[in-house]
Structure formats: structure tokens, C-alpha cells
Amino acid sequence: CAPEPLTSRPKHLTWEEIKIHNGRGQSQQQWLVIDRNVYDVSTFSKQHPGGSRVISHYAGQDATDAFVAFHNDKALVRKYLKSLLIGELAPDQPSFESNKKKSLLEDFRELRCTVEKMGLLKPNYTFFFMIFLHLLVLDAASWLMIWYFGISLVPFLVGMAFFTIAQIQMGWFQHDLGHCSVFRKPKWNHLLQIIVINILKGLPASWWNHLHNQHHAKPNCFRKDPDLNMHPLLFSLGKTLSVELGKKKKKFMPYNYQHKYFICEYFCFLGVL
């Protein structure tokens, strides 16, 4: 799991120089760090296949772990990185920002290497085939129940149960497809995801990927994770919480209260699906 070396090694840069190129303030440039190499993604972010926001969220920061997590074919991606390379961290500079805990990062990277060696990230095609088959059967059964038995109470409730379970399972199946976890090639994941979420569920895959990629790029990070953009009409702490965190300059959610409002989020999420 050692980082793959890049060929050219331009000028040395410090974290002070990198942090000011975060796309905000006077400098609109966006620099980020991957394996101690510094890249200027200011222009590339607009053409980034995963969306401009995902990569822009790491402007002025170390994006090594996000890069590893989001890209399966790293050799292919590194070909595009060569033209964006502008320098590397100076020898006296740490590999990540000062506000990150070294032991935590090392533990996480060791865990990822262990998971990969154990083969836990390899897809089980039989499992996913059975998931897809059973949700199609449930979806068809819901319509056949109404068509054959009519719309009296019992057939309606049974059909509704079949349809609800199928829709929820479709949501999680397309979730795995959106993560490119089912097939080795991304194009097959995206194709089947479009069939499941666009056709069977009636939602755009591009919309889901745009929001969910940001969520995993910056999970629970205030103003960067779309899942935290709670509507004040749906969540009583939505607008109030935003103002409170803004005044206190906090960048995280009050996790100690999460168990109290999670059930509301869960049912609203099911309603969206």
C-alpha cells in the first residue's frame, strides 16, 4: 500500500503556501496534495468526472486518502495528474495538515491495507445477482397483486408491502452501484445504476451521485457534506443549528444528539426514495 512514485519532482512548497490556494478569498486557485505531490486543479476541477465540488472540497488540503478511496484504476488517473503537477512538499513539511492526527491516519491506512489483503472489497456477483432478482420479483408481485385481486384492502396492503420493500432494496442496490462496488468496470456500474434508480425508481442517478460523492468526500463536515444541509421546515434544528454553528465557528455536528433526530432523517430519507 505504499504510494506510487511520480516521475517529475518540481519545486518545494510549504503548507502555508498550499493552504491559501483553497479556492476562497483573494486566491481563486485550488491546490491539493496527493502522496506529498502538489497539484493545481483550478481548471481541471470543472472537468472532473466526479464533479467539481468533490475535488474542490480538498483545495488547500491533503487529499491522499480520498484519492485512494475514490479511484479504482489509479494508474490511469495518474496519467492525468502529470500535467497538473506543480511541486512537492518540502522535506521539512509533514505529509498532511497540522490539524490532523498522525496516529489516526496511520491506523486508518493500515486498516484499509488489511481489508484489501483479505479480499473484502472484491464483489460477490452471486449475491448481487440475487439482490437484483429478488427486488424485480417483489416489484412485479406488487403490481400483479393489484391487477389480479383488485384494489380491496388486503390485496392493496400486501401489494404496498411488496412495493415498499422493493423500492427500499432498489435504493441500497443502486447505492452499491453508485460506489462502483458491483462490477470491476465503472461503466457497467453506472449503466445498471441508471436502470435501477432512473427507470425503476424515477430518480436521476447524476443527482444522487453528485450529492453522495460529496458526502463521502467530506462526511459530516459542516457546509461540505450535503447530508447536513437540513431544511428548517423538515427539521426543527435546521436553521437554528446552522446559525449556532456559524457563530461558534464550529465545523461539526452535535453527535451527542444524533440518536434523537436520526429517526426523523430516516423516514424523510425513505420518503425521498
UniProtKB/TrEMBL annotation:
<keyword id="KW-0444">Lipid biosynthesis</keyword>
<keyword id="KW-0472">Membrane</keyword>
<keyword id="KW-0812">Transmembrane</keyword>
<keyword id="KW-0276">Fatty acid metabolism</keyword>
<dbReference type="Pfam" id="PF00173">
    <property type="entry name" value="Cyt-b5"/>
</dbReference>
<dbReference type="InterPro" id="IPR036400">
    <property type="entry name" value="Cyt_B5-like_heme/steroid_sf"/>
</dbReference>
<dbReference type="GO" id="GO:0016020">
    <property type="term" value="C:membrane"/>
</dbReference>
<feature type="transmembrane region" description="Helical">
    <location>
        <begin position="119"/>
        <end position="138"/>
    </location>
</feature>
<keyword id="KW-0443">Lipid metabolism</keyword>
<dbReference type="InterPro" id="IPR001199">
    <property type="entry name" value="Cyt_B5-like_heme/steroid-bd"/>
</dbReference>
<keyword id="KW-1133">Transmembrane helix</keyword>
<dbReference type="GO" id="GO:0006636">
    <property type="term" value="P:unsaturated fatty acid biosynthetic process"/>
</dbReference>
<dbReference type="InterPro" id="IPR005804">
    <property type="entry name" value="FA_desaturase_dom"/>
</dbReference>
<dbReference type="GO" id="GO:0016717">
    <property type="term" value="F:oxidoreductase activity, acting on paired donors, with oxidation of a pair of donors resulting in the reduction of molecular oxygen to two molecules of water"/>
</dbReference>
<dbReference type="InterPro" id="IPR012171">
    <property type="entry name" value="Fatty_acid_desaturase"/>
</dbReference>
<dbReference type="Pfam" id="PF00487">
    <property type="entry name" value="FA_desaturase"/>
</dbReference>
<feature type="domain" description="Cytochrome b5 heme-binding">
    <location>
        <begin position="10"/>
        <end position="90"/>
    </location>
</feature>
<protein>
    <recommendedName>
        <fullName>Cytochrome b5 heme-binding domain-containing protein</fullName>
    </recommendedName>
</protein>
<feature type="transmembrane region" description="Helical">
    <location>
        <begin position="144"/>
        <end position="165"/>
    </location>
</feature>
<keyword id="KW-0275">Fatty acid biosynthesis</keyword>
<comment type="pathway">
    <text>Lipid metabolism; polyunsaturated fatty acid biosynthesis.</text>
</comment>
